[in-house]
Amino acid sequence: MKGSQDGGWGLNQNFKKNRTYHEAVNAWVAAHKNQNIVYCFVQFQGTKLGECPRVYLARIDEIAKRLTDSRNGAGETILWENVCRKRGIAKGCTDKIPSESAFSKERVSHFLPVSIPYIASPRLVNPEDTDDFELQVVSAN
Fold it and tell me: What range does the domain containing 95 cover?
C-alpha cells in the first residue's frame, strides 16, 4: 500500500540512474519476484479531514504500462493520479490513472475471482495524521 498527499506515487526513481525512463520501468518490473502483486494506491490530496481518500488497485504490468505510456510515451518515474502537462515534450498531455482501477467490489473481484460478501474500505486511524490509515472490512450488502 502506498499513500500520497501530492497527487503522485514515486515508484521507480531508484532504477532511473543511467537508464531511459522505459529501461527504468523494465528494471522496476524485473525487481519484483512475484508479478502478481497488487498495489493499493491511496490518494489524500484534496481530501478533507475525516473524509475517505481515493483508492486504486493495480498489478505490476498495469502500472508499468501506465508509466511507459506517460508523457506521450516518453515514460515517467511517478504514477500520477491526474496531471495535465503544461510544458516540455508532453505539453498538453494528461496522465491519469484509468477509472477502472478505482477501488470497488468489482475491482477487488478482478484480482480475487470469488464471491466476496465483504469489502475493505480505507479508514483513517487518526484523522490528525493522514498517513496513518487501515483497511476496514465492511459488508458489501
Answer: 2-111
| Nine cell digits for residue 119 | 469489502
pTM: 0.77
DSSP string, 30-49: HT-S-TT-EEEEEE-TTPPT
**Residue 82 lies inside a defined structural domain of this protein:** yes
In a domain, 132, yes or no: no
Residues 70, 76: Cα–Cα separation, whole Å: 6
Between 127 and 77, name the one with better pLDDT: 77
Scored b (16 or more CB within 10 A) or e, 61-100 reads: ebbbebbbebbeeebbbbbbbebebeeeebeebebebeee
71, three cell numbers: 508523457
Q: What is the pLDDT of residue 95?
A: 95
